[in-house]
Please model this.
Amino acid sequence: MKENSSVAEDLILIKKTLRGEKESFRQLIDKYKNSIFKLAYYMMGNYSDAEDVSQEVFLQAYRKLKEFKIRFNFHTWLYTIGLNICKNKLKRRSILKFISIDKLILNRDDEIIRQIPDKSATIEETLIDKEEREKINVIFAGKDSIVWKK
Model:
């Protein structure tokens, strides 16, 4: 029953925000900021990026609040915005990481050779990536009762 009252409270705050009561949106931020920050920190891996993502989530939510469909849960909508922002930032981050094909490396005889370093994942990294993808798939599948194991 608590969840239904929470959803009803969210809808009231959303309607008030749309009427121009900015304090109502502040209440929504206060209610969900920890959850969104945890998501961002988990996805981005550092505090600074998590703060930036969290701010972007609420800014985008505020700008698109008129598009929010009341049949959806507001927290789920915010979470989806957060996931999309994280995915886009991580995608951009991986695009910006590149290696030069012409990277110069000196061998033992101080001769210059051209080499592309091996950046392939270790078995451990591959398993961790697989586990993370599975967790994300669970999130996208709409499962609410996820227990994260360390």
